[in-house]
Amino acid sequence: MDILVVLEDKSGNIHRMSQEAIAGAQQIGGECGLSIGVLALGENAPALAEQASQYAVEEILSLENKYLFNYTADGFAAAVAQVVSSEKPKYVFFGHTYQIRDYVPRVSAKLKRPFLNDIVSYSVQGGKPVFSKQAFNAKLVTALQLIDDSPCIVSFQSAAFSSDTIQSGLVSVRSVTVNIDAGSIKTVPEDPFQETAGGVDLSSADLIVSIGRGISKEENISIAQELAKAMGAEIASSRPVVDSGWLPPHHQVGSSGQTVAPKLYLALGISGAIQHVVGMKGSKNIVVINKDPDAPLFEIADYGVVGDLLEIVPKLTEAIQGFKN
Amino acid sequence: MSEREVLDMDVLFVGAGPASLAGAIHLKRLLRESGQEANVAVLEKASEVGAHSLSGAIVDPRALRELFPNYNDADFPFEAEVTEEHLYYLTATKKIPFPFVPPPMSHHNCFVTSLGKLTRWLGGICEDEGVDIFCGFAGTELLYDGDQVIGVRTGDRGIDKNGEKKTQFEPGADIHAKVVILGEGTRGSLTKKLINRHELMQERNPQVWAVGVKELWRMPAGTVPPGYVTHTMGFPLGHDIFGGAFLYGMQNDIWDLGLVVGLDYKNPAVDSHHELQRLKNHPWIRSLLSAGQMIAYGAKSLPEGGWYSIPRLAVNGALLIGDSAGFMNGQRLKGIHLAMKSGMLAAETTADALSTGNFTATQLADYESRVESSWIRDELWKVRNFHQGFDRGLLGGLANAGMGLLTGGRGWGFKNRLFSEAGHKKMKKIVEKNRYKDLQFDGTYLFDKVTDVYYSATAHEENQVPHLHINDQNVCTTKCAEEYGNPCVKFCPADVYEMVPDGDGQRLQINFSNCVHCKTCDIMDPYQIIDWVPPEGGDGPVWVNL
Amino acid sequence: MNICVLVKQVPGSEAHFSVSADGLWIQETELPFEMNESDNYALEEALQIREQKGTGEVVVVSLGPDRCKKAIREALAKGADRAIHIKEDAPYNTDPYAIASALANTIKDEGFNLVLSGLQSDDLGFGQTGVILGELLGMTTATLVVGTEVQDGKIRVKRELEAGWFQWQTMDLPASLAIQSGLNTPRYPTLKGIMTAKKKEIKELSFADICAVDELQSFNGLSVQHAEKQTEMIAGSVDQIVARLVDVLKNEIRIN
Predict the structure, then answer these.
(1) Predicted ipTM?
(2) B77-112+207-301 maps to CATH 3.30.9.90
């Protein structure tokens, strides 16, 4: 295959970002005439391979190995490097998840091939894809130049592609094996656990509802929180809300807060001072609701509503609860 | 780490500006020449030398040449020698050149300079001389033994906004020194305390300040002539507000545009930031700048009172230098050379004091004699009544200045000394709304305050007690709102003060994180209830070449 | 316990910068620089581990032009014992593989038990260097580290997983860890720290001499991301607005 997409396991299902990577592979593969293979590895490899077999790709590889049952960077890096060495794709695609950050640089080092991480877009030049990533805290973007043709390893930022565009097909699964030496696994993981986080990492949130001064009063914040809950979104805010003590600082988005680039940034009553905008302008879809038609934030909005959020938001929440049920 | 650090030094300069750095360099050399050993340190609240330095500036190289007699002018970190200079009177649309530039206002043989670049350069030499420069440490208290200043305490670090200690809490350090030299710059906070405690302004005119706001603009390559100098009067300030604009050509295709506004205006609606934006509306300025991009913004006050506003300069154990002492020539718009010379003179006094072991006010008053017999006095004496003439408006001020030129500095041609009052007292109780109603901020050429603040690269540790102490916040929502319309909202060039809706009324919100340390609020508040104290060390602007 | 901390100097977080005239890098001349944020946490973690163990060196390694001496001195003032400055002037190498290889070359004979680096740099934002370095030197690696516990010959680290999940794992030493911001509280440098920092060793090397591999990838110019936005303004009655918003969220943005 020309493109090998490596799947990540999310409790027995293909991780959404791996799906997005497949969608990306199909899109890029279509434009550049590249064939696609998919690799499932880990404890749930067969289940993942089964799910992937319904996508329009050329090959599905299922890799089962006892040293891959629990994720370790040692094991996964060794396994993927071996598969890439034997399958020789031109490109290896991943979704840019925390797990990828943990082990794929080692694949890059083992293979001495470049890892282009957190890619946000691509263009086709001379029949080949050229990948772009953000730099300087997402303020700037650069197209990455490669020393030679291939292979290169690429991970895509969340929502660079949409899993909704995956084309379906029917492919059979082939097993592959790797040799992993017991002594090469030098990491013993324990069970994952959840913590009521002191701070939410907004930068990994997919959907954000963000509150600005236009919320007017502390009491009104619950209106926004209800909406966030209905949508499954995280709550963020601009600086004045935090300064007034209405929300704790870790919700702040902006030059002195967090930088985010979610699939959806729904801004309620935020005017769009530059200090705030630099923290969120990379968002894939920006929806702005503000009473003030001159609010600068409308300039970077995909959808804008000049209106009273106190009227609109509760009804929006109701409607969303409706379609979710 | 929660024991207070104690450090013993011989001499401590507070503030790594040109005065202290020149002083420290000179002192180290004097000590070496006389075979003495002494520990000399400089305390600086910014995270690095130069980060809080802001000026126009045009530098008279006199002090630098004295300090570095073996250097050529090309060795100094100037932008360029002044190549052409202009003086204009502006109306809203026209620019009218002055028929000639009065010699004392000429900048011939002077150099366009970035003060940040100059202080960084001086800082490097200072360190090479063996001086310890402690950046990120703010001097918050003077240490006394009876009536003798024996050192400086730096601010605690790691206190949260409720005044509680955070995990990384470090108590302030006590730096003991035989001589403490305050070179904190304009409206120094320790200087303020020293002046009050020892009544150093007795029989002097109260100090009067101005605030300078500026923007740096990066232009297309090759379009800015380094060394180009223009000063203007008239638009936008008119005749009743002291001040004027400056435009200097720097290296790297940068225009340095600024406006100086006297902090003794009567109208509480005046907003120096907005006046700068109005200035940019002038077609001539627009023609120069609109092809470029604004890259930096800053503001700083400057002492304008002149000779008669300089306090007594020596107390037991401490000296005042530079802008903290008010060594600024308002007519020539130059103070850096005076600051450096004052630092050097203080160094000479200090070297003598160290050799005698006597650090009393009597011994240290030698510094005052040195200043009296130096070119600092020669120069400032001739312009001793300059600012005071502008109490009668622009034309009065120019007439007074003209007469001063002919009479060696006499006020109105015949008075030896003109008296004046503090600037904040001049503010009248009129509330002009809509002064700036025609000013539209487009975000690409004219910027609102919040956007300009973003370009001042200023940041403060968010979780700390605001460093702007308002002694009675009730005044803000009652008396001040009625009488003056909350001028703090306008006179602060950094959007620190805001009146925000609170229930049925309003409350004062202090966005201390925007503060650029210009000290305007401490100076201009009509009730004098704002006390500016240094925030946590390392906080504030991070200016590079302002 | 000898620990190496990789420290990078990056443009100040509050700084506004623009692309240089040739479009290849950013305009550096008017910019303030500071230590990369997560590197500061890595340094603090190293200092704390060394304090717990009682012995060992903390050595700072930094790659960059002359100005990064400021970040190095800050690290020394906070308690690092010595530093290695690999000098590189613009144009800078932008390939984490080449950079990590050069760093590996520099430290391979030092026998460090731990290499700590910040999770990613605020300028290039690759987040790979520490991990590649670990692989090249045969170390175990972990990223998004939010807690450490040194044991005998091993280290137990807490890793951040997505969505509020965490996981501990025990790894053999030597290990290379990429540290997430916020896991500790970085200390302030003390006056004495600043004074003694002046006497600490900063070994200078040249990147050109050490880097033995070519860049596998490089930045090809920089530009501002263009929001080629067509804003759809949604108007009407509240009900109409809500209906359109729901449609957008459900069918166009697909929030599901």
Answers:
(1) 0.92
(2) yes
